[in-house]
Each structure stands twice: as C-alpha cells, then as structure tokens.
Amino acid sequence: IKTTLDKLSKGSAALDDAYKDAIHRIEGQLAGDSEQAKNVLSWITYAQRPLTTAELCCALAVEHEEEELNPENIPDMEDLVSVCAGLIVVDEESRVVRLVHYTTQEYLERIRRTWNPRAQLEIASTCLTYLSFNEFKNGSCSTDAELRERLQQNVFLDYAARY
C-alpha cells in the first residue's frame, strides 16, 4: 500500500501506473480468482448504488440458468477483498463495499472496453436471473410484514428489483 500511495502523489500518469500494476496482479492470479476479481470490480464500478457485502456476495453467487441460489456459491468477503489486489475496501460500520479511491472507478471505466466489455450486460442478466428464481414465483407480498420478511431473507432482492 505504501508504494501505491507514493505513486499517487506523483500525478495522474503514476496513478494510472499504480492501477495498471493492480490489474496486472489480478490477471496474474489463478483464472477463477482473476475472473472473480473482475466480477467484483464490475459490480462495484457499475452498480446503481453502493452495495453491502451481503448484497455483493449474493449477486456473485447467482448462476445463470439456475432457478435458485445455491448457498455454497456465496463467496467469503475476505477472499473477495484479497483477489481485488487492494482496489476495494469494506466500510466496517455500514458494511458497504467501495473502490479504494474515486479515481479507481474512473480508471476502470476507461479500460472497460478492453478489460471487461460485458460488465453492465452481466449485471443486468444477474438481476433478471435472480428475479426469476422459484422463490419469487408466488407473486407479490400481500402485507408489509411479508414484504419485510422477504427482503430480509433475500438480501439482493431490493437491488435486483429496483435496478
């Protein structure tokens, strides 16, 4: 982190170099870890609002073409932080996952076409897949209490339904 902070103070070219180094470290990981990091960074970069750790982990566990969420697919947040090479942080109080600096988002948006061109499509597809789970086929809730319970039991529902 000290090296990155030193680079940050030397201007935007050095900032880009620091982000290129981080991306290079991510791409140098095992394929599954590299792909997971890409997905995490895409979600944080392109989500319509900040996501909590629970929401992000749930979103990452969604498998396309499946009709329910497999709890075994829910990743460990510490592992996600680790594979992202210092580019994300978790606010301990709110449990919101954020990019380490606002310039991180700017950099990731600039390299989107070459690094992860399908990010926004994947996010939309994940939300649609989640909303089509068997859990929700019974329709809407008939009381506020039922809705609150459904939202508590399905942490990603609020985000998927709104965005």
Automatic annotation (TrEMBL):
Residues 34-109 form the GPI inositol-deacylase winged helix domain. This is GPI inositol-deacylase winged helix domain-containing protein. PANTHER family: AMELOGENIN, NACHT DOMAIN-CONTAINING PROTEIN. It holds the Pfam family WHD_GPIID. It comes from the Eukaryota. It comes from Polyplosphaeria fusca.
